[in-house]
Amino acid sequence: MKLKEIAKSANTSVSTVSRVLNNKTGVGKEKRDLIEKLLIESGFYNNSYKIANDIKRIAVIVSDLKNPFFSEIVKKITEESRKESYQVLIFDTDENFQNEIESIDSIIKSNILGVIMCPSGGSNSEKNLKKLEDYSIPFVLFDRELDFYHDGVFLDDFKAGFLATEALIKENHSNIGILVGKLKHKNMYNRFLGYCHALKVYNIEFNNNFIYEIDLEVQDGYNVAKDICSKNSNLSAIFSCSNLITLGFIKYQNEVNKKNKISIIGFDNPDYFDILNLNISSITRSISEIGLISAKMLFKKLKNNTEHTQKIIINPILKLKGSEKIKN
Q1: Domain 1-54 is in which class?
Q2: Phi and psi, residue 114, nearest 5°
């Protein structure tokens, strides 16, 4: 039975059914009891769910939990949620859009009041967000902005790409490559555009052979480094758009002990980079701040029962540690 059918059976609106499904106020006891009975009969939730529906829960959907960036985000959201007496359920899509679909479907059936989400499907994720809207479940996006407007906390990725590339140019690099994630994601596309703009501003010719669009995995960074070295490429510097890609790239260079290593500026700077004394120059941001702002934004929507939209853009910070310099 679909939500519209339940609403028809209860002689009420879809929004009223959604309010009951999400344990919101504003529905009389008699009508609520009838709707809950129909929801149980239809399989939207069971009796054990009903007993537990006083528990306040939100969901966090990340695209790759093994990435330290997302782990830190989740940690901060969890800390803030405890202060507001919310439990947090974590969904890891593993950069798989089908997993995102299944996560959203599970959330809709699980008495989850709100969602903080990093989309994994690019523009296709609009369909999943539309589902949340249809069920009156508020959500906040982070890291990956979408073309349509929604609440969210994002980095100025264009500026990030420009700053990193400009720093390499100022070190007298002219053959600069970019290791970028899938360009269907707006954050990666904007970092790429920033890279291109820096080349244009400084009159450096764009070379399509220097563009590597890859998955955000250590192994992919490793494979690209191996490919570049095997081709004796004249690349002298790389802008890497992901900490995991950066790690894989450095891993290969260290294994082969290449004397004239390629200079690099990475993205984010996990603690273990410093622990291992890697001294990687990078574009950084306050990751915990992203988690904090995302959580507070969602709590505000839940408390005020509002659909007010707000987009917060965080400025990137360039930290130079020497890896951007020409290797002699």
Answers
A1: mainly alpha
A2: -160, 165
160-206 pLDDT, tens per residue?
Answer: 999 999 999 999 999 999 999 999 999 999 999 999 999 999 999 99
* pTM metric for this prediction: 0.83
Domain edges within the chain: 1-54, 157-285
How does DSSP classify residue 43?
Answer: T
Q: For residue 29, what are its two tokens? A: 């006891």
Classify 157-285 by CATH class. alpha beta
Q: What number of CA atoms fall less than 13 Å from residue 198's CA on the CB side?
A: 26
The H-assigned helical ranges of the chain are 3-9, 14-21, 29-42, 47-51, 68-83, 97-108, 125-134, 157-170, 186-201, 218-230, 243-256, 271-275, 287-304
- Tell me how far apart the alpha carbons of residues 313 and 125 are, in angstroms, rounded to a whole number: 20
Residues 6+ apart with CB under 8 A from 148: 126
DSSP 165-219: HHHHHHTT--SEEEEE--TTSHHHHHHHHHHHHHHHHTT----GGGEEE--SSHH
**182/187 Cα distance (integer angstroms):** 10
DSSP code of residue 122: G
